[in-house]
Amino acid sequence: MAQSTLDSMPGASTGTVVVTEPLNFWGGKRVKPRQEKNAEPVFEPATGRVLCQMVPCGAEEVDEAIQSAYAAYQKWSKMAGMERARVMLEAARIIRERREKIAKLEVINNGKSIIEALVDIDIAWQSIEYYAGLAGTLAGQHIQLPGGAFAYTRREPLGVCVGIGAWNYPFQIASWKSAPALACGNAMVYKPSPMTPVTAVILAEIYKEAGVPDGLFCVVQGGAETGSLLCHHPKVAKVSFTGSVPTGKKVMEMSAKSVKQVTLELGGKSPLIIFKDCELENAVKGALMANFLTQGEVCCNGTRVFVQREIMPQFLEEVVKRTKAIPVGDPLLESTRMGALISKPQLEKVLGFVSQAKKEGARVLCGGDPFVPSDPKLKGGYFMSPCVLDNCRDDMTCVKEEIFGPVMSVLANNTTFGLASGLHTDCFSLDISRAHRVAENLEAGTCFINNYNISPVEVPFGGYKMSGFGRENGQVTIEYYSQLKTVVVEMGDVESLF
Ligand SMILES: NC(=O)c1ccc[n+]([C@@H]2O[C@H](COP(=O)([O-])OP(=O)(O)OC[C@H]3O[C@@H](n4cnc5c(N)ncnc54)[C@H](O)[C@@H]3O)[C@@H](O)[C@H]2O)c1
Ligand SMILES: C[N+](C)(C)CCCC=O
């Protein structure tokens, strides 16, 4: 049942888990791949060991999953919002109950520290709980018209929605997409990243256990080809995508062919502005939170840190001291604050950005090297020491491109991205207006004032410019998973012009 892979979690430690259960899920159960010939190994980032095999779904499997989702949609969409809410609240409760086991499995597949994974799982059940709360509130409007005629609007689901996720927040992304989709009466077929295939299917099992109709939340495994099959399928009404800008553009292009709605949650290169009147200790902590969560593999990270000249020396001294003290190592240890990057190629890419930054004139104040923990079982892991670069200029590669690793570039504005931004200043003095003036002028979907990377589920999250469109979280997301029908009712005779 729902606890299959999770059953082995309590005693599990880094380097011990192998996942052999099928990772697809439709029709209310795990489904074995039809043929194993295209299997790809999935690695445990902390050890470099093979964790499981990911077998991509082909056209027939994708179609089967979508048909199963469509059948479930016919039942689920006819239920009252409050009935859907009860099932979703039960799913949230089960996730909360199993948070430690799910978080452990997430760490083993993703490499992030357990302390962060626990927060990710909490945000996941909170998201389901939040949208369960909204499910019963979905309503239309009544509009009085002349002569007793009237119109009313109905907020209706879209149908089968597709979710395509990235590898940095595997369980959380699946929850952020499925929670509003299900609350509105849709079904969802979800494709996780091929690098993190193991926890989305746990979510599917939990939804099933909570009482959704079989097929309502399906998981198909695969990479670009499977993703493309989903985007082209005629029975799919919407695609919600989280990933890179180049893939997001392709998803939009494919979806446009059959006018599917699209939400794009893409990359970023967000600025964090530190003013001289800030509370320095908080600004330093904010900069670390803005750069080093999940080994720096976070879309909204504030990786371009602009510091007012007068406080630059103190800021750098404190940031470097704290960065050097970050415990890097076994991600399942509670004391670890930075785990392993997702893959060897990702580690090499990030180290390459550091070398390029040096060539272009940046100064490495700390880190930026491969890191080999003393524990022998971690020798093959994808670790690096967190890095702070200064002497950075707007035209440097490290300042323009998304690195997606633990590298902070310190400098001062011009980017095609617009996901997030942040600033640290004194909001309690007479100059209270500055924070809000700057927030208004930053071209980004989010501006964090005096903190960074906090994302309560009630608050909308999403990008401006090349960072995408549509939103996740908050009440507004209901609009991205539903459509408005207008019903116009005549109460008298038809006045025809003909
Ligand atoms: N804005 C956000 O909320 C957010 C959150 C997490 C990650 N991201 C971004 O994601 C990127 C890193 O994740 P990634 O490397 O997994 O991104 P990616 O674009 O390589 O892959 C994302 C997903 O798209 C799938 N995919 C790849 N090619 C496809 C195609 N042709 N058609 C359909 N699907 C396809 C992948 O299999 C994966 O599931 C970064 O740029 C990061 O900023 C954004
Ligand atoms: C929960 N965070 C930290 C805001 C990350 C959201 C997903 C982006 O990669």
From TrEMBL:
The keyword Cytoplasm applies. The active site is at E265. Pathway: Amine and polyamine biosynthesis; carnitine biosynthesis. It is found in: Cytoplasm, Cytosol. The keyword Cytoplasm applies. InterPro entries: Ald_DH/histidinol_DH (IPR016161), Ald_DH_C (IPR016163), Ald_DH_CS_CYS (IPR016160), Ald_DH_CS_GLU (IPR029510), Ald_DH_N (IPR016162), Aldehyde_DH_dom (IPR015590). Pfam families: Aldedh. Keywords: Cytoplasm, NAD, Oxidoreductase. Its main location: cytoplasm. GO terms for cellular component: cytosol. Residues 38-487 form the Aldehyde dehydrogenase domain. It catalyses: 4-(trimethylamino)butanal + NAD(+) + H2O = 4-(trimethylamino)butanoate + NADH + 2 H(+); an aldehyde + NAD(+) + H2O = a carboxylate + NADH + 2 H(+). One of its GO terms (molecular function) is 4-trimethylammoniobutyraldehyde dehydrogenase activity. Converts gamma-trimethylaminobutyraldehyde into gamma-butyrobetaine with high efficiency (in vitro). Can catalyze the irreversible oxidation of a broad range of aldehydes to the corresponding acids in an NAD-dependent reaction, but with low efficiency. Belongs to the aldehyde dehydrogenase family. Homotetramer. This is Aldehyde dehydrogenase domain-containing protein. It comes from Astatotilapia calliptera. The lineage of its organism: Eukaryota, Metazoa, Chordata, Craniata, Vertebrata.
